[in-house]
Write a structure and sequence with these properties.
Bound molecules: thiamine diphosphate, magnesium ion
Helix content of chain B: 25-40%
Largest sheet of chain B: 7 strands, mixed
CATH superfamily of chain A: Thiamin diphosphate (ThDP)-binding fold, Pyr/PP domains
CATH topology of chain A: Rossmann fold
Helix content of chain A: 25-40%
Number of helices of chain B: 12
Order of helices and strands of chain A: HHHEHHEHEHHEHEH
Structural class of chain A: alpha/beta
Strand order of the largest sheet of chain B: 3-2-4-5-7-6-12
Largest interface: A-B, 40 and 32 residues
Number of domains of chain A: 1
Radius of gyration of chain A: 17 Å
CATH architecture of the largest domain in chain B: 3-Layer(aba) Sandwich
CATH superfamily of the largest domain in chain B: Thiamin diphosphate (ThDP)-binding fold, Pyr/PP domains
Distance between the termini of chain A: 29 Å
Number of strands of chain B: 14
Strand content of chain A: 5-15%
Shape of chain A: globular
Order of helices and strands of chain B: EHEHEHEHHEHEHEEEEHEEHEHEHH
Largest sheet of chain A: 5 strands, parallel
Number of domains of chain B: 2
Distance between the termini of chain B: 25 Å
Number of strands of chain A: 5
Structural class of chain B: alpha/beta
Oligomer: heterodimer
CATH class of the largest domain in chain B: Alpha Beta
CATH class of chain A: Alpha Beta
Strand content of chain B: 15-25%
Number of helices of chain A: 10
Chain lengths: 280, 317
């Protein structure tokens, strides 16, 4: 069983890394990144079997695909903190010649990334392909895919949602960050996607729900999800989160989806997030 | 040399694709084939029968197909996606751009029913912009073979090439004339030696160019005929060697005159050895319903059009 306190302490540092990356670059997406910090920490420090020496094929490893690529700051921090590349490289986020491009890419060879993302709606398809390849290769490990909830408005997502159960892609765990926010406002205002769990269930997915900002629940639900794989159905986790979680003035609003804090607000954020592993 | 180029009968290039898939899938068990409800049109039934576990019916969901292919490539597979050329390119340009080209995935995008010659289905299906779109993607190899045999050879060769490929072919029965001729990606096929004019042709237009060259020969005009099956990377050496002999050029393609083979050749000529060039291509328009022959006629891609273009180029020397 995971040491929940330890995971929480890593998540606190990851949240600092997120705000510092975005503040330094004066661009990037803090809101969704902060909301998904607990999930990514749980995946990389507890749930997934993975090797930081990194191979593109990910043979005999669990793989993670980030479909909502704009939340790159949280992924970069978690990859660095788990040993994929030096933590100090986080200082290069969005700078010229960096491997830490605005949206994740394979182009600059950043370890941990297996596809470019940023144009929304594509990641679940790629994850399904990777899961099918694992089956062909008799590789028993799993594929995880994170998407945004606004991203669910893209038609391609539903092509993939329809495909996976029909083809019994049961080595796949898809998670949606249900923060109910996107760029122009809340999903209720822009385009309501309703009860996602019900929709995925109607397409034939095994559905779980969790509070994505409660580490105990995240770890337990991911373990449950793993236990449900290999039974003929893909697994879906409807993950409720708060956008901007951990920085009070960013919480629960779309306004910090893709905006950098100024020096004063950055200091305010730092005061709310404990430095647990040492800043880069 | 020109006289030796003879049609040995007619078959569709897409049949050549199917035959190529049969050959390469027997030889390489990493080859997997995906389709978006067009298995019959793309001639992959033998593959489906022989290797059901390596076949993925995606349904009418081309965007999803491109993404799944990218993911399969991550697991070491060599995915061939199959659908019509329109739905292989314009429909899914962003998916190809991000998940395949930019992400360096070893996916083979195999596209049938390209150009006007799909015929009666009309302009919704007759894509004339695909070569341009695919050429512009960094790292994409673009191949447009001319007959059954060359398409078969190309379908096999692309499995041995590491990187994304756009393989474009067509629907109609078409003369076969390249059996036993070599095929190498990126290497133009020199089909006839000549001194007065260079004709560079790709896809179905190679046969039109062969016929045109025979017409021109009757009038004493000697054609250097080059089959450019690989549009990217372009065999610049072969193109320049030819125009240095002849001093003028005609490009022939079943594509919009913008963005395709003609543009690619013009870029090579202007940068290295400027000579007059005439374009046989669709003049910036959509197609329409009709038989392949009627359409080639109406849109300026007939044998007579190639002959006329050659004479225009000659006159400008
Ligand atoms: C295909 C595509 N269209 C539009 C955008 C611009 N865009 C980036 S993020 C975003 C909102 C995404 O909302 P959601 O998935 O809920 O992510 P969150 O804002 O919660 O992080 C949009 C519209 C994009 N990146 N890709
Ligand atoms: Mg959202």
């Amino acid at each position: 069983m995971a040491n929940i306190a330890e995971l929480k302490s890593i998540a606190s540092q990851v949240r600092r890394d997120i705000v510092r990356q975005v503040a330094d670059a004066q661009s990037g997406h803090p809101g969704g990144s902060l909301g998904c910090a607990d999930l990514l920490v749980a995946l990389y420090f507890e749930t997934m079997k993975h090797d930081t020496s990194f191979s593109m094929s990910g043979d005999q490893e669990d793989m993670f695909y980030l479909s909502n690529g704009h939340i790159s700051p949280v992924w970069y921090s978690v990859l660095a903190r788990s040993g994929y590349f030096p933590v100090k490289e986080l200082a290069t986020f969005r700078q010229l010649n960096t491997r830490l491009q605005g949206h994740p890419t394979t182009h600059e060879g950043l370890p941990g990334v297996r596809t470019a993302s940023g144009s929304l709606g594509q990641g679940l398809s790629v994850a399904i392909g990777a899961a099918l390849a694992k089956k062909l290769n008799n590789d028993p490990q799993l594929v995880f895919c994170l998407m945004g909830d606004g991203e669910q408005e893209e038609g391609q997502v539903w092509e993939a949602v329809m495909f996976a159960p029909h083809n019994k892609v049961d080595n796949l765990i898809a998670i949606v960050d249900r923060n109910n926010q996107q760029i122009d406002g809340s999903l209720d205002e822009v385009l309501d996607i309703g009860d996602l769990g019900e929709k995925y269930a109607a397409f034939g997915w095994e559905v779980l729900r969790m509070d994505g900002n409660n580490m105990e629940e995240v770890v337990a639900t991911l373990a449950k999800a793993k236990s449900l794989t290999g039974k003929g159905k893909p697994i879906f986790i409807d993950m409720k989160t708060e956008m901007g979680k951990g920085v009070d003035y960013m919480e629960g609003t779309h306004k910090w989806h893709g905006k950098a804090p100024d020096a004063e607000l950055t200091a305010k954020a730092m005061a709310q997030l404990e430095e647990t592993l040492g800043d880069y | 040399m020109l006289d030796n180029i003879k049609s040995t009968g007619k078959k569709a290039t897409r049949d050549g694709f199917g035959a190529g898939i049969d050959a390469i899938s027997a030889e390489n068990d990493q080859v997997v084939v995906l389709t978006a409800d067009l298995a019959g049109s793309l001639k992959i039934q033998n593959f489906i029968d022989n290797y059901p576990e390596r076949y993925f019916q995606i349904g009418i969901a081309e965007a999803n197909m491109m993404g799944i292919a990218a993911g399969l490539a991550n697991g070491g597979k060599i995915p061939y996606t199959t659908t019509f050329a329109n739905f292989s390119t314009g429909r899914v340009y962003d998916q190809i751009r991000q998940s395949i080209a930019y992400s360096h995935k070893n996916v083979k995008i195999c596209a049938s029913h390209a150009g006007l010659t799909l015929g009666e289905d009309g302009a919704t299906h007759q894509i004339l912009e695909d070569l341009g779109m695919m050429r512009m993607l960094p790292g994409m190899t673009v191949i447009n073979p001319c007959d059954y045999h060359q398409t078969k050879a190309a379908a096999i060769a692309i499995a041995h090439h590491d990187g994304p490929v756009y393989l474009r072919f067509g629907r109609p029965s078409w003369p076969m004339f390249t059996e036993d001729m070599p095929f190498e990606i990126g290497k133009a096929l020199h089909m006839a030696e000549g001194t007065d004019i260079s004709i560079f042709a790709t896809g179905h237009m190679v046969w039109q160019a062969v016929e045109a060259a025979k017409e021109l020969a009757k009038e004493g005009i000697s054609v250097d005929l080059v089959n450019i099956h690989t549009i990217k990377p372009l065999d610049e050496e072969a193109i320049l060697a030819s125009v240095k002999k002849t001093g003028c050029a005609v490009s022939c393609e079943e594509h919009n005159r913008m963005g395709g083979l003609g543009d690619a050749i013009a870029q090579v000529l202007t940068g290295n050895h400027p000579v007059p060039q005439e374009f046989v291509a669709v003049n910036d328009s959509f197609g329409e319903s009709g038989t392949p022959a009627e359409l080639l006629d109406k849109y300026g891609l007939s044998v007579a059009d190639v002959v006329k273009a050659a004479k225009r180029a000659l006159a400008r020397k």
